[in-house]
Amino acid sequence: MNYVSKLSLGLVICLLVGTLGCSRSDKPSLAEVKGKLMKEGKPFVNAQVEFYPTVDGAASYGETDETGSFTLFYSTGDPGAAIGDHKVTVIGGHVAGDPSPPTPEVVAPTTSTEEMAEGTLQPVGMAPQGRSRNKDGSPSRVEGLTAKVESGANDIILNL
Questions:
Q1: What is the mean pLDDT of residues 137-152?
Q2: pTM of the predicted protein model
């Protein structure tokens, strides 16, 4: 075999190995997930809903609208969630029709701009308005919910 043939064969093998490596996806199978978040029979609105698979895959996220409805999107931006069991976290929100919790007073920094530029970290802002908050002003967090995502379309009702 001459030099050109060996080089060509080596190049073809490298391209095949590279193509096979790129065609494999680490993303699990996803299923469409829509749902509704409720508290005491009323829609829970303006909350972030996070689904964390208990086995393989990354988290999926959604936000409830004025009816408590949400649609999940996988961490890559694709619609859906990994098929299987999930731990669910809800951040912020409030019962529809209830007044939004008051936004804590934001105090102006006591340091100058020059002092802040020297590496002192200052708060950038607060969580979005209209979400329930802890006494320190951070959004409240509910953990311990579970859900099962099955192949096909899913309509999941979560009760707080």
A1: 85
A2: 0.64
Q: Give φ, ψ of 3 to 5 degrees.
A: -60, -45
Q: Answer yes or no: is 22 within a domain.
A: no
Cross-strand bridge partners of residue 31: 81
List Cα–Cα distances, 91 to 13, 17, 40, 131, in angstroms.
50, 44, 17, 8
Q: What's phi and psi for 61, nearest 5 deg? A: -135, 150
Beta strands in 30-72 (DSSP E): 30-31, 33-39, 42-53, 60-63, 69-71
Best CA proximity match to 48, nearest among 4, 92, 94: 92
Across the range 81-87, mean pLDDT stands at 97
Looking at residue 102, the DSSP 8-state letter turns out to be: P
Residue 153 lies in a domain: yes
Containing structural domain, residue 119: 27-159
Q: Is residue 97 part of a domain?
A: yes
Asked whether residue 2 is assigned to any structural domain, the reply reads no
Two structure tokens written together for 21: 């490596």
| Average pLDDT along the chain | 76
Number of domains, the chain: 1
Share of the chain above pLDDT 90, in %: 52
Helix (H, G, I), strand (E, B) or coil at 89: strand
Q: What is the CATH number of the domain that holds 138?
A: 2.60.40.10
